[in-house]
Design brief:
Structural class of chain B: alpha/beta
Strand order of the largest sheet of chain B: 4-5-6-1-7-8
Oligomer: heterodimer
CATH superfamily of chain B: P-loop containing nucleotide triphosphate hydrolases
Number of domains of chain B: 1
Shape of chain A: elongated
Helix content of chain A: 40-55%
Radius of gyration of chain B: 17 Å
Number of strands of chain B: 8
Number of strands of chain A: 23
Largest interface: A-B, 30 and 40 residues
CATH architecture of chain B: 3-Layer(aba) Sandwich
Structural class of chain A: alpha+beta
Shape of chain B: globular
CATH class of chain B: Alpha Beta
Strand content of chain B: 15-25%
Chain lengths: 816, 206
């Protein structure tokens, strides 16, 4: 058994095959595991943000009959409502939350015992009689923990400062400082009564099966005011960037697998040549097909398993390293299906690309082999083609879990895979014909490529695809990352300020410059409720009755006026006229929800009466931009005469609580929002994404060079013989060197040219759409050329071995 | 290990010399040294009155291209080149003008004028060896080395190739060094030498 495992390693073709399999296994294992980790973390994070695996929300508490259905699940009920705190002569509007035992079901609350103390995590809410308040409550009311405050009619003692809640939504604009107390104290406050604006949320968590049972049972019991939120709904709403990243990486793995598959195929062709004689001899000794298969294929299969396992183990190690680097703990997230994928994936690849070829060992008549009349090109091409096309589809299905997602990319791959050789073939023919007038060395170089289409076309096609993908990945990946970075630079605004009055602006500007904080534009803000559309009351005008629409109509919207649009806004219909009073621009999704169109008249009710305007543009807004964004933007002076406050953002190094406290002491009425935690998370994703793309590009290039290695190795014996013959016929070493160099240059250059053309073709639509027809030129377009030269250099280095073969070997191959 | 010793061999212009000997006797090594593909550890090879084995590798290749040609047992045609291009190859290396015309002429001579565009893999063994003969004679060599030229052919094809080889050799006045197992073939040469244990002997007439 030991000899059977080690024997194949003596063959360089097998070593290439094993390396290709290891690289494929490595990329497959690391990506499958990483995806499982990301998805699990994303689901957990989504459940945290949602508050549970399921949330039953309504204007009244959940009914007892509903609770009976949910007895298998952990439960906690929260009630959110606005209220006013009174302390001595100070009044403060706060956003109150009463939470029952068990809150929070997921994640932790960030709390501190004293002002300016660092936050720590805690897994439970306040006990009855306790009141936890935000820093701003302390600053505004000028109190310290330990003080007793009255909430409604109930006195509660401030015992902790609350800084962060796991289910904190991103509803920046209506956010008043938070207070949190136990729901047992709620009835005694006497705050809740008919007409109070309160929203109840029954948070639910438990085993997947119990959750899914509840998910099915609850919809039939929902009252008018109730809705059910699930993790899946919440995830689809916010998974955009993560999905893009996993899709991109999956495509990368698919390409790496394909290239490794090509290398495996080429290396196996060599193995077949070398082992054909053995197979034929065995058969001439009377061995049956089965015996030959067991001996030769069995040995091959045993020998590739350690290679695949090594790659898989390296992939697992890579992921464990990443988990450690990111401080992720807990058991690995991958499920049985994931483990099966990463263990079986490499073998699927080997079976698809190597087995049909190896089976030629028993299909070719033994006498043909023994008489040196083996015609390897005629071996059942259909099976090989089907297997080679089927394996990537199977892998893609395993990788994405759904073919629909990768359908477009797969189509592209198949088209490229089938079309490229078909396009390259006539080109190669043309090159062959035109090379007649070239000097001898160039002609011989071209003919080595043009007269071996079976080897040249797949090689050229895979190199071209690899270079094109690398170039495009470089261009678009870099574009994507730099867009994100631009959006989220290291000094992206990490604090938002609301409720600044006109008089505050100079004081605030002084404070900013004094503390080296970086200011951003300030927006005048007016709160107003949309009340009429084209003169029709909004309740009648808007027929759509979904939850979000309901919320939009039920709350004050933040209106602003400006003379320029923020960079993260793009007008998609109509036009933005900064000085056209009486005109307003509306955000696209809101417009769709409310059925608003260009030229509609909208009327808002504000504290100063009403304000109306005609919609003259519809904007697309990038909500992930960490910039203040608005549903309605009026042209300059559109809000004249209204009660204006200001909204702005700024950057200040993290952990500078004392400076912020000085700001709040100076302007106690402002609302300050710290978004460092959100920013850190987003920036972390960018860093991981750029690492992932870098690693994927490296693996892709390694796989492409491996294909080249396998192809050159396959042709090495023939090449050596040809070189020796040239020497025998009087050719100088210089001639042979030139032929080899030119051959590699034509190959690398051809792949680079093809890749650049593909890149240009792919970028052309982008240029049409975004740059008014101009192609987005960048240095990345040169990448295929640089890599093509690298391919050529690698080819020359590998080809040097064939150059050294002495011509006498020609004679020695014969009797003598 | 000494492979060859006390070898003194002179081949006159137009002369044909056969070298026979058992397997492993060093026939191919001797041919390689004579052709300048290898150099002797002692002794010297002179070609056309000038030192040959003392030249460096590229100079030997140049000289070989000018004066010598080969016919191998396994034909050794370049598989990427068609029949015509294979015959043109040594002419082009030598820098002869109108190589295609000369090549075509010689291919007509060996009876393959109708297969100029075919590739070696589509030809029979006998046809491939005839292409090799055309390639060898196209450069008008002064000396032709033939290493078991019929070793890979059946009797009928072997006969045809041999007839062609001797006919063309006679017409062109080329000197011939022929390595073979076949005593009958050796007998057709003007001189027959036998290589045994590294030494050249003149065999007793049969």
């Amino acid at each position: 058994m030991h000899a059977a495992l080690t024997r194949p390693w003596r063959d360089p073709a097998f070593r290439i095959l094993a390396l290709a399999l290891a690289i494929a296994a490595l990329s497959l294992a690391s990506v499958v595991l990483l995806r499982a980790e990301l998805e699990q973390r994303f689901d957990v994070r989504t459940a945290e943000v949602l508050g549970g695996d399921l949330v039953l929300a309504g204007s009244y508490p959940a009914a007892d009959t509903q609770r009976d259905l949910l007895s298998d699940l952990r439960q906690s009920e929260i009630a959110d409502f606005p209220t006013v705190l009174v302390h001595e002569d100070e009044l403060l509007l706060v956003s109150a939350r009463a939470a029952s035992d068990g809150y929070p079901l997921y994640g932790e609350l960030g709390v501190a015992d004293a002002r300016f103390e660092a936050s720590r995590g805690i897994d439970h809410g306040p006990r009855p009689g306790e009141l936890w308040v935000a820093d701003q409550v302390l600053d505004r009311l000028g109190i310290e923990p330990g003080v007793t405050l009255t909430v409604g009619r109930q006195a509660l003692t401030v015992t902790r400062i609350i800084r962060q809640e796991p289910d904190q939504g991103a509803g920046f604009y209506s956010m008043n400082p938070r207070i949190l107390f136990h729901s047992d104290d709620l009835p005694a406050t006497g705050i809740l009564g008919p007409g109070t604006r309160v929203s109840y949320r029954l948070l639910l968590a438990g085993a997947a099966a119990d959750v899914s049972r509840a998910e099915q049972a609850l919809p039939d019991t929902l009252r008018e005011d109730q809705r059910l939120d699930t993790v899946a709904d919440a995830a689809t709403r916010s998974m955009g960037p993560m999905r893009q990243l996993t899709l991109w990486v999956s495509l990368g793995v698919l390409l790496v697998s394909l290239l490794c598959g090509a290398a495996i195929y080429l290396a196996t062709t060599q193995r077949v040549r070398r082992r054909a004689r053995m197979a034929a001899l065995l058969r001439s000794f009377g061995a049956r097909r089965r015996q030959v298969l067991t001996r030769l294929l069995g040995e091959e299969a045993w020998a590739v398993i350690p290679a695949a396992l090594t790659g898989t183990l390296l992939g697992i190690a890579l992921l464990l390293g990443l988990r450690r680097a990111l401080g992720w703990d807990g058991p690995l997230a991958a499920g049985v299906a994931d483990w099966l994928t990463l263990l079986l994936g490499p073998m699927v690849l080997w079976l698809a690309f190597a087995l049909p070829r190896l089976s030629a060992l028993v299909r070719t008549p033994a006498m043909q082999v023994l008489n040196d009349r083996l015609a390897p090109r005629q071996l059942a091409g259909v099976i090989e083609l089907a297997a080679a096309l089927g394996a990537p589809v199977l892998l893609a299905a395993l990788l994405t879990g759904s073919l629909a997602e990768l359908a477009q990319l797969l189509t592209l791959l198949v088209v490229l895979g089938a079309l490229l050789p078909a396009l390259l073939w006539p080109l190669l023919k043309v090159l062959d014909v035109t090379s007649r007038r070239l000097p001898l060395a160039a002609r011989l170089a071209v003919r080595r490529l043009s007269r071996r289409p079976g080897l040249t076309l797949p090689l050229l096609a895979s190199l071209t695809v690899a270079l094109a993908v690398l170039g495009m990945a470089g261009q678009t990946g870099n574009q994507l990352l730099s867009d994100w970075r631009q959006k989220l630079p290291e000094d992206a605004p990490n604090h938002f300020v609301f409720n600044l009055f006109d008089d505050d602006l100079p004081v605030f500007a002084d404070w900013l410059s004094e503390h080296g904080a970086r200011p951003q534009p300030a927006y005048p803000v007016v709160r107003g409720r949309l009340s009429e559309i084209n003169g029709v009351p909004v309740r009648e005008a808007v027929t759509k009755e979904d939850d979000q629409t309901e919320r939009t109509l039920n709350r004050d919207l933040i209106l602003t006026e400006a003379n320029t649009l923020p960079p993260s806004n793009r007008v998609i219909a109509g036009s933005w006229q900064p000085d056209a009073t009486g005109e307003v621009s509306v955000e696209k999704e809101l417009a769709e929800r409310l059925g608003l169109a260009l030229d509609d008249e909208v009327l808002f009710t504000t504290s100063q009466g009403t304000v109306s305007a005609r919609i003259t543009s519809i904007r697309e807004v990038d909500w992930e931009s960490f910039e203040p964004n608005f549903f309605f933007m009026f042209a300059q002076d559109g809000l004249a005469g209204q009660d204006i406050t200001w909204l702005t953002s700024f950057w200040l190094p993290e952990g500078d609580g004392a400076r912020l406290a000085s700001l709040l002491r100076e302007m106690p009425h402002i609302t300050l929002l710290d978004v460092n935690a959100l920013l850190d998370q987003a920036q972390d994703i960018i860093r991981q994404a750029s690492r992932a793309t870098g690693l994927m590009a490296l693996l892709l290039m390694a796989a492409a060079l491996l294909v080249l290695g396998a192809a050159l190795l396959g042709a090495q014996a023939q090449r050596g013989r040809d070189n020796a013959l040239l020497r025998t016929l009087g050719g100088s070493r210089e001639l042979i060197r030139r032929v080899t160099t030119l051959e590699c240059l034509v190959l690398g250059g051809g792949a680079a040219l093809g890749a650049t053309l593909i890149m240009l073709a792919a970028l052309y639509p982008l240029g049409q759409r975004l740059f008014e027809g101009a192609l987005p030129w960048s240095l990345w377009l040169l990448l295929p050329t640089v890599l093509g030269l690298l391919v050529a250099a690698t080819g020359m280095a590998l080809g040097r071995g064939a150059l050294r073969q002495p011509p006498l070997a020609l004679l020695r191959q014969e009797a003598g | 290990m000494t492979l060859l010793e006390h070898i003194a061999l002179q081949v006159q212009p137009g002369e044909s010399v056969a070298i026979t000997g058992p397997s492993g006797s060093g026939k191919s090594t001797l041919l390689g040294i004579l052709a300048g593909l290898d150099v002797p550890s002692e002794g010297e090879v002179m070609l056309d009155g000038a030192a040959f084995s003392a030249l460096d590798e590229d100079q030997r290749a140049l000289r070989r291209g000018e004066l010598c040609a080969f016919v191998f047992q396994s034909f050794h045609l370049v598989s990427d080149l068609n029949v015509l291009e294979n015959v043109m190859l040594p002419l082009e290396i030598k820098g002869v003008s109108k190589p295609a015309d000369i090549a075509r002429q010689w291919l007509e001579r060996v009876g393959l004028g109708h297969r100029l565009k075919h590739f070696p893999t589509t030809l029979s063994g006998g046809e491939q060896q005839r292409v090799a003969l055309a390639r060898a004679f196209a450069v008008a060599p002064r000396l032709l080395f033939a290493d078991e030229p019929t070793g890979s052919l059946d009797h009928a094809n072997g006969q045809r190739v041999i007839e062609l080889l001797f006919d063309m050799n006679r017409e062109a006045g080329t000197a011939l060094v022929l390595v073979t197992h076949d005593d009958q073939l050796a007998a057709r040469c003007q001189r027959h030498l036998r290589l045994e244990e590294g030494r050249l002997l003149t065999p007793e007439p049969a």
